[in-house]
């Protein structure tokens, strides 16, 4: 049930771009993206809904391919504050009674 | 934005004792709350889904009798770790979904509880 993310880890220099991918073996109705700093709770970044609707922060972009059951998060002109672990997540269809986080991607931005 | 509190933020207990963790939605009503456990350098793993007024739905492999969940009101869910052992040491996080939002909308997370069992 757990979505698989790639890459597992990435190191960037400030100003560089990165793409984080999330792939599910189950049908996706929505994909959520969160960032977590060490020892803290996840922070909401974005939700992508079936049909193309997106909700989230202006500086972050993402895509959602329903047919391929994949989503990608695009981080451009990275800043030091972008460092953390990024998780995608998805609720179960129809009921949303479960929510499964992806395997996670560790992102480190260095000066 | 909506706020979820979690208490305590950290707890250290002896093996064999029980620990209760509270999760509260402060400014919205939450029909559904989720409980997660996270081990170091791993993802958040769903333990159970808590719905107000009904029994919690546990994920496969999670012991119902060990992790007791009660969702007595639209703003409070509790997780009790009974007879805790060192392997239960972990970071426990709750999240809540706003009653007024759709099923596929944002969850709001508590700050987490660090449990250490000696």
Structure overview:
The complex is a heterodimer of chains A (111) and B (118). Chain A is mainly β. In chain A, 0% of the residues lie in helices and 53% in strands. Chain A has no helices and eleven strands. In chain A, strand 7 and strand 8 form a beta hairpin. Chain B has strands at residues 4-7, 10-13, 19-25, 30-38, 45-51, 57-58, 67-73, 76-81, 90-98, 107-109, 113-117. In chain B, strands 2, 4, 5, 6, 9, 10 and 11 form a seven-stranded mixed β-sheet that branches. Chain B has a four-stranded antiparallel β-sheet with strand order 1-3-8-7, with no helix packed on it. Chain B is an all-beta fold. In chain B, 0% of the residues lie in helices and 53% in strands. In chain B, a hairpin with a 2-residue loop joins strand 7 (67-73) and strand 8 (76-81). At the A-B interface, strand 5 and strand 10 of A face strand 4, strand 5, strand 9 and strand 10 of B.
């Amino acid at each position: 049930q757990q979505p698989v993310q790639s890459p597992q880890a990435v190191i960037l220099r400030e100003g560089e771009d990165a793409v984080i991918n999330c792939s599910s073996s189950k049908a996706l109705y929505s994909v959520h993206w969160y960032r977590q700093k060490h020892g803290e709770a996840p922070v909401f970044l974005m939700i992508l809904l079936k049909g193309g609707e997106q909700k989230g922060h202006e500086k972050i972009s993402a895509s959602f391919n329903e047919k391929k059951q994949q989503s990608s998060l695009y981080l451009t002109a990275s800043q030091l504050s972008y460092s953390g672990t990024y998780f995608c997540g998805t609720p179960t269809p129809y009921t949303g009674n479960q929510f499964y986080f992806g395997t996670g991607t560790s992102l480190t931005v260095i000066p | 934005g909506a706020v979820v509190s979690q208490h305590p933020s950290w707890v250290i207990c002896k093996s064999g004792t029980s620990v209760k963790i509270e999760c509260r939605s402060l400014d919205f009503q939450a029909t559904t709350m989720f409980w997660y456990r996270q081990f170091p350098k791993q993802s958040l793993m769903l333990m159970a889904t808590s719905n107000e007024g009904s029994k919690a739905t546990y994920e496969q492999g999670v012991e119902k009798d060990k992790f007791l969940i009660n969702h007595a009101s639209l703003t409070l869910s509790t997780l009790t770790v009974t007879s805790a052992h060192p392997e239960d040491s972990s970071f426990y996080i709750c999240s809540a979904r706003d009653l007024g939002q759709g099923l596929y909308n944002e969850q709001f997370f508590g700050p987490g509880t660090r449990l250490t069992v000696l």
